[in-house]
Specification:
Elements (H helix, E strand, L loop, with lengths): L28 E3 L6 E13 L4 E12 L1 H6 L3 H15 L59 E2 L3 E2 L3 E4 L3 E9 L20 H16 L6 H12 L3 E4 L1 E4 L3 E5 L12 E8 L6 E5 L5 E5 L20 E10 L3 E4 L8 E4 L2 E12 L6 E4 L2 E3 L4 H9 L7 H4 L20 H4 L6 E5 L4 H8 L2 H13 L7 E4 L11 H4 L2 H14 L7 E3 L6 H18 L5 H24 L24 E3 L12 H17 L1 H15 L2 E3 L1 H11 L1 H5 L4 H9 L6 H6 L7 H26 L1 H9 L1
Parallel strand pairs: 2-14, 20-21, 22-24
Antiparallel strand pairs: 1-23, 2-3, 3-11, 4-5, 6-10, 7-8, 7-11, 9-10, 12-13, 13-18, 14-17, 15-18, 16-17, 19-20
Organism: Lamprotornis superbus
InterPro entries: Aminopeptidase_N-like_N_sf (IPR042097), AOPep (IPR033577), Peptidase_M1_dom (IPR014782), Peptidase_M4/M1_CTD_sf (IPR027268)
Keywords: Aminopeptidase, Hydrolase, Protease
Length: 724
């Protein structure tokens, strides 16, 4: 549960002035980053995990591009962006800007490369544990402050870069001298790397621009230079201050985003109580830490731009004590490199731009689960019947043009398009190794193949499955291992579905969670049906109807016992997807404590998609889903993007009253049970499996009542037996 502490004496000032009003007295989560001015394109993290202090510390280098709003402003950009700075200033509640007096040294490390891995360790940042540069526990971080934008140079204000940040101790911020990197001349239009200060600043920004805009076929070269640029020395400390929800950075005398340093390094450390990661013990009692799907996402793990529009790539080197395994969202299967006795380094990278919220990390004493023999593995692989989706077998498939920003896309890779089962690994604590091998390993290739047969090309090149402790609120699977293959399979199918809906295709507005969770819940049934090749059509139908009944009861109970405002799938309605002029926004009800326990986005989203599939016909519906994936992978969407495309494929349905507007009204913009779902009736009552289970439940309820009646007469005699 997330609790936002408020100081009673501090009141929200009345001069907050932005298009999206941020009211900290409510339960909305503020996204503070001014992405319209500057946009992060790549992160390089260099971190140490310390289990003795429950701290992750090190540095992060951010590479920027000038934001879209400022680029569009052209000649009037200065005035346009200045108004955004004014707006930003009115949003902040922070300390006056200052130069931190901390002795932090930068040095070039000796490096070895494994998939471009940086294995050298920079000197550790040192600081006073009682430094006052960490986040202040203020009421909101959104009230006005005249100190955050100093007036200099005849009244002009410095540009203020705002990053999302919470529960972090920021030690130092500096500009990175990318011009000092050997061989970087190829990214400059001028061969000269020396000159006056202003020219040198422009040159550094030009280098970063050329680097972040390299074409997709040069991604390995790009990653190589990102690595070397991240190790370049600093060339000047930057002013910074921290608020409850943000980190604000400026450079004295710099008034526009175009002139602001486009490569900066931030030295920081997390706090043990930080809300982005959980420090706990695994099922074997050994220490571990992992990102947990927090409502505040990753801003307490590293300073970042949280708005979904800030699509970026990243790479990370993580060091920890020998005996620990580091798993991370990344395209490579990292292997540890020993730096010194007792210290290992792990390196991961991502070349597909995604929101910072999708960054995940888990560090623990996990062990990889493997088949005991080659024959067993071969038997599993040969048991998979792979059928190509109709869109994959179409000769015109390769002619599709991706609509996303350029990156090395698997949808354009002929070999990837034919890969039904991508490489996968399973990690677990030692006490669960046997259960994972018995229930999980054999299911993964079946579920991956079923997903491929349904949606086509896997968006990502590999899959890691980690069995985390039962207190993990979002993605944990340990609790379902004891349920055998069925529970494991359905849960696994749900998480595999997120590769398409949630990662490859994301919601442009976080309040539309149903785009991720509703689709994954619907698709888990489709995937699992195809994975169970031994079952008949009637048996599959029975399973799905039983699950529909259970979901219906869960939705009914939740609607009866929750606030109406939390039952709406599109709470911002017509304003969904809108940003303020600076790019800041809010996640409506994002900090509402009970919201993280609710499943309404899963359930109402599932029933909407189920209703559409029944109306259109499953075959036509799944064909439309594949078409949607091909068109929108690598992009952010709103509800209307999917609904409009779906209805375009079935124009006859519009005549019967099925429109985007009617779906909004009946399903997404209202609380309670959707009207079409009530009118549909409980069709599952006619299902034979449902009747069988209902009869079994009734039998045991009656038996329990008889036992209770008899136990009242012999309470003392039966008490011990009952406890046993």
């Amino acid at each position: 549960m997330v609790i936002l502490e408020m100081h009673e004496k501090q009141q929200l000032k009345q001069d907050v002035n932005m298009e999206t009003q941020l009211d900290p007295l409510k339960d909305d989560l503020p996204l503070m980053a001014n992405t319209s001015c500057m946009l992060v394109k790549h992160y390089v993290l260099d971190l140490d995990v310390d289990f003795k202090r429950n701290v992750i510390e090190g540095s992060i280098v951010l590479f920027f591009e000038t934001g879209s709003q400022y680029r569009k402003a052209s000649s009037t950009g200065k005035e346009s962006c200045q108004s955004q700075f004014d707006e930003t200033c009115k949003m902040r509640a922070s300390e006056p800007c200052h130069i931190p007096m901390i002795n932090v040294s930068i040095c070039s490390s000796k490096t070895e490369y494994n998939d471009f891995a940086v294995t050298g360790k920079e000197e550790e940042a040192t600081s006073d544990e009682n430094s006052n540069h960490s986040n202040n526990e203020q009421a909101s971080g959104i009230s006005s402050s005249k100190d955050c934008c100093d007036i200099e140079n005849h009244g002009n204000k410095d540009f203020l870069l705002v990053l999302d940040c919470c529960d972090l101790s920021v030690l130092k911020v500096e500009e990175v001298d990318v011009a000092a990197v050997s061989g970087i001349e190829k990214f400059t239009r001028s061969a000269k790397l020396t000159g006056v200060s202003k020219e040198l600043e422009n040159l550094r920004n030009q280098i970063v621009h050329e680097l972040v805009t390299l074409p997709a076929d040069r991604w390995k070269e790009q990653l190589y230079y990102f690595t070397h640029c991240s190790q370049a020395p600093g060339c000047g400390e930057l002013l910074f201050s921290t608020g409850t929800w943000s980190l604000e950075i400026r450079k004295s005398g710099i008034q526009t985003p175009a002139d602001f340093p486009h490569a900066i390094r931030i030295w920081y450390k997390t706090k043990p109580e930080g809300r982005s990661v959980t420090w706990t013990t695994d099922q074997s009692g050994r220490p571990c830490v992992y990102t947990m799907g927090s409502p505040i996402n990753n801003r307490a793990l590293f300073p970042c731009q949280e708005p979904p529009i800030a699509l970026s790539t990243w790479q990370a080197s993580v060091r920890t004590a020998a005996g620990f395994v580091v798993l991370m969202s990344g395209e490579n299967s990292a292997e540890p490199v020993q730096l010194q006795e007792g210290i290992l380094s792990w390196y991961y990278y991502v070349s597909m731009p995604m929101p910072a919220s999708t960054f995940t990390i888990a560090v623990g004493c996990w062990q990889e689960v493997k088949q005991k023999s080659f024959k067993q593995a071969a038997a599993i692989e040969t048991n998979i019947e792979c059928s190509l989706p109709s869109c994959q077998t179409d000769s015109r498939w390769h002619e599709e043009i991706c609509g996303h920003v350029e990156y090395p896309c698997r949808f354009q890779n002929p070999a990837a398009r034919l890969q039904a089962v991508i490489p996968y690994r399973v990690f677990a604590p030692c006490c669960l190794m046997e259960s994972c091998e018995e229930h999980l390993l054999q299911l993964i290739p079946q579920c991956l193949s079923a997903a491929y047969a349904t949606l086509g090309t896997h968006p990502f090149s590999r899959l890691d499955v980690l069995i985390v402790p039962s207190n993990f609120s979002s993605l944990g699977m340990a609790s379902v291992l004891s349920g055998g293959s069925h529970l494991c399979g359905t849960r696994l199918c749900h998480e595999i579905a997120h590769a398409w809906f949630g990662l490859a295709i994301g919601a442009r507005d976080w309040t539309e969670e149903w785009i991720s969770e509703g689709f994954a819940t619907f698709l888990e049934d489709i995937f699992w049906a195809r994975a169970q090749q031994q079952l008949s059509h009637d048996e599959i139908k029975g399973q799905q109807e039983l699950k529909a009944l259970l979901r219906w009861r869960r939705l009914r109970d939740e609607v009866q016992n929750s606030e109406e405002e939390l039952q709406v799938l599109r709470p911002k309605k017509e304003s969904t997807g809108e940003l303020s002029e600076s790019g800041a926004s809010v996640v409506k009800y994002g900090l509402k404590a009970e919201k993280i326990f609710m499943q309404v986005h899963y359930l109402k989203g599932y029933f909407l998609l189920r209703s559409l599939a029944r109306t259109i016909g499953e075959v036509s519906y799944l064909a439309s889903l594949r078409k949607f994936v091909v068109k929108f992978h690598g992009q952010l969407v709103l509800s209307q993007d999917f609904l409009s495309m779906l209805l375009e494929d079935i124009p006859k349905q519009k005549k019967s009253g099925l429109t985007v507007e009617s779906i909004f009204q009946n399903w997404l913009d209202t609380s309670g049970i959707p009207k079409p779902l009530l009118e549909e009736g409980e069709t599952w009552k006619e299902c034979q499996l449902v009747q069988q289970v209902s009869g079994e439940v009734t039998k045991w309820i009656q038996a329990n009542r008889r036992i209770r009646k008899s136990s009242k007469k012999k309470m003392k005699l039966d008490e011990v037996v009952f406890q046993q």
